[in-house]
Design a protein that fits this description.
Number of strands: 7
Radius of gyration: 77 Å
CATH superfamily of one domain: TonB
Strand content: 15-25%
Strand order of the largest sheet: 3-2-7
Shape: elongated
Number of helices: 3
CATH class of one domain: Alpha Beta
Helix content: 25-40%
């Protein structure tokens, strides 16, 4: 009676072991498929990388250079001909006859300088002092430029330098023209007109 139970146990144990073996086989198959997929993907990626490396390693294409242009046609210049200038030598003209030498005109005799003008001192007295100038205290020196004719008489009188008072200057000119006389200068024995400067001193000490 104990033998059948033992068989049932073996059958049950055998069924458990079969399930485990089938499960292990299934897992192994799945793992193999996964590994195959992973290996295929890795191989494909490696192939792409090798292609990229090959593409980058390829040398650039060398563009052939254009041939140089042909040399230009060199035209030889025409030969240089030397031109020898011809000179015609003309005989010099005959010398011209010398111009007649004109005699220099005789030099005129040097002009004889006139003699000096001399004053007639007795006529060169002091003019009367104007009364108004005395009251105002006017004094100074009137310098006059006078023109003298051939008779020794004063024909013109101008104020060369004022005394500071027009009244004194006018009185000096009027008195000199009416009273002062000169001995005119002579030139070649003849009296000539002259011009000279004279001073009339106005001093209150000499007032009359």
């Amino acid at each position: 009676m104990e033998r059948p139970n033992h068989d049932l146990q073996l059958i049950a144990q055998g069924s458990k072991e079969g399930k485990a073996v089938s499960l292990a086989i299934t897992i192994a198959i799945q793992v193999g498929v996964i590994l195959a997929l992973v290996a295929g993907l890795a191989a494909s990626q490696l192939k792409h990388e090798l292609l990229a490396i090959n593409a980058s390693v390829e040398r650039p294409k060398v563009v052939p250079k254009a041939p140089p242009p042909p040399p230009p046609n060199l035209v030889r210049p025409p030969p240089v001909t030397t031109v020898i200038p011809q000179f015609a030598i003309q005989a010099p003209p005959p010398p011209a006859a010398p111009a007649p030498v004109k005699a220099a005109p005789p030099t005129p005799p040097a002009a004889v300088k006139p003699t000096e003008l001399k004053a007639i001192t007795r006529t060169h007295s002091l003019p009367p002092y104007p009364t108004i100038s005395q009251r105002l205290g006017e004094q100074g020196t009137s310098q006059l430029q006078v023109a003298i004719d051939v008779t020794g008489t004063v024909t013109d009188c101008k104020i060369a330098k004022s005394s500071g008072s027009e009244r004194l200057d006018a009185a000096a000119c009027e008195y000199v023209k009416g009273h002062w006389r000169w001995q005119p200068p002579t030139q070649e024995g003849k009296p000539v007109a002259a011009n000279t400067l004279v001073d009339v001193v106005w001093n209150l000490k000499n007032a009359q």
